[in-house]
Amino acid sequence: MKRQSDPKKGALSGPSQRQLRAGELIRHALVEILREEELQDEALHNISVTVSEVRMSPDLKHAICFVEPLGAGLTGQDTTDIIKGLNRVSKFLRGRLGRSIDMKFTPDLKFIHDESFGTAAYMDKLFLDPRVQQDTRRLSDVVDDEDEA
User: Fold this and answer.
1) Are 54 and 66 contacting, i.e. CB atoms less than 8 angstroms apart?
2) What pLDDT, on the 0 to 100 scale, is given for residue 98?
3) Percentage of the chain lying above the pLDDT 70 cut
4) pLDDT tens column, 75-116
5) How many CB atoms sit inside 10 A of residue 88's CB?
6) How many angstroms separate the CA atoms of 80 and 14, rounded?
7) pTM (two decimals)
8) Helices (DSSP H) in the chain: which residue ranges?
9) Is there a contact between 111 and 87 (Cβ–Cβ < 8 Å)?
10) pLDDT of res. 108
11) Banded model confidence at residue 133, pLDDT cuts 50, 70, 90
12) Is the Cβ–Cβ distance between 51 and 34 less than 8 Å?
């Protein structure tokens, strides 16, 4: 008897526990590889990279790695150059990754700049705006009044 599957369920549900576990395994291994290896691409010399998240495909054969270059603005280097450099050395990183993880397949790696750090900085800047602080103070006053009652 064939199993009934709901085509809408896969689109709405998030990643499986297996995908999340494999993504964390890959992320930890990539951090170690990037810390220890001297990459030959000129865009990656003296650059530290934070691997914030790895999202795996359902078949675990493809990994999208969200990275944030540290100090890219300080060295005058553009983050897009660093991301392109990481994508150029992704085959080398995949080879090193295959030796350090125990998975049936070593996934193909694709590197993307993580925009969440910029979004968090923008949110911090918004919270420092006097108009927003005035609104948050009013809200905290209302909440404090309810707690006392």
Assistant:
1) yes
2) 92
3) 79
4) 556 788 899 999 999 999 999 999 999 888 999 999 999 887
5) 15
6) 28
7) 0.72
8) 7-12, 17-36, 72-75, 79-88, 90-100, 116-127, 130-148
9) yes
10) 95
11) confident
12) yes
Are 111 and 65 contacting, i.e. CB atoms less than 8 angstroms apart?
A: yes
Residue 121 amino acid letter: A
- The b-or-e profile of 14-48 (16+ CB within 10 A means b, else e) is eeeeebeebbebbbebbeebbeeeebebebbeebe
Indicate the residue type of 148.
E
Token duo for residue 93: 């990183």
- Nearest of 70, 57, 63, 61 to residue 29 by alpha carbon: 63
Token pair 């911090």 in the structure block, residue: 124
Residue 140 tokens, joined: 């905290």
Nearest-Å Rg of the Cα atoms of the chain is 21
The residue type at 58? P
85: its two tokens: 């450099």
- Per residue in 18-41, pLDDT (tens digit) is 999 999 999 999 999 999 888 888
